[in-house]
Design goal:
alpha+beta; 2 domains; two-stranded antiparallel sheet; about 15% strand; elongated
Length: about 190
């Protein structure tokens, strides 16, 4: 008895339904990740690799009640290091000679996880190339939001300062109105003269 290699007919994905469904799932997830973060289409390979990496660690097989990673490695996957695809990140600039007041970090785009080490794949916006680094700080904000959390909290502080005037008594309100009307009358008189 020998193993026989059976080929499917060209352009008939119906004959290989399981693999075609898996490929379509990868393609759809990669497409949504690219469009959600307004990334260029040439990042499709990184998006597909990241999608496959994530799916192998989170999708549970219904009959076995285990993930593909768990079946292969024999232990549950750690997903605490997952980050949003396409988010802004900053890596430590340890490659270039830094002057005294140069920035220590470079702004980059997160593209996925390394297959060979525990590093992250990032796209360097200055050199326009994909790098791997472990020294990464992530800015995991919601896609499409314009302001950072720090900016929002600063705006909240300013709003509370504007509305937190001390309670005024009736007398102080009346005196304030009287001052404003007298100032307005003085301005009108000076305009007529």
């Amino acid at each position: 008895m020998s193993i026989v290699h059976e080929f499917s007919s060209p352009r008939t994905p119906q004959q290989n339904g399981i693999v075609e469904r898996k490929n379509r799932t990868l393609q759809e997830m990669a497409r949504s990740m690219i469009h959600e973060n307004n990334l260029a289409k040439h990042f499709w390979a990184e998006a597909v690799n990241t999608t496959c990496y994530v799916q192998n660690r989170i999708y549970i097989r219904p009959i076995l009640k285990k993930t593909a990673y768990e079946l292969f490695k024999g232990r549950r996957p750690n997903i605490s290091y997952f980050h949003q695809f396409g988010c802004t990140c900053y890596i430590l600039n340890n490659k270039l000679y830094l002057k005294k007041f140069d920035a220590k970090a470079q702004r980059e785009i997160f593209l996925g996880y390394s297959e060979r080490s525990k590093a992250f794949k990032v796209y360097n916006l200055e050199t326009l190339c994909v790098e791997e680094s472990m020294h990464v700080k992530f800015d995991d904000k919601e896609p499409g939001s314009e302001t950072h959390k720090k900016d929002e909290s600063f705006a909240d502080i300013q709003a509370t300062e504007d509305t937190s005037e001390p309670d005024q008594t009736e007398e102080s309100k009346d005196s304030l109105e009287a001052e404003q009307t007298s100032e307005a009358q003085d301005e009108v008189a000076s305009d007529e003269a």
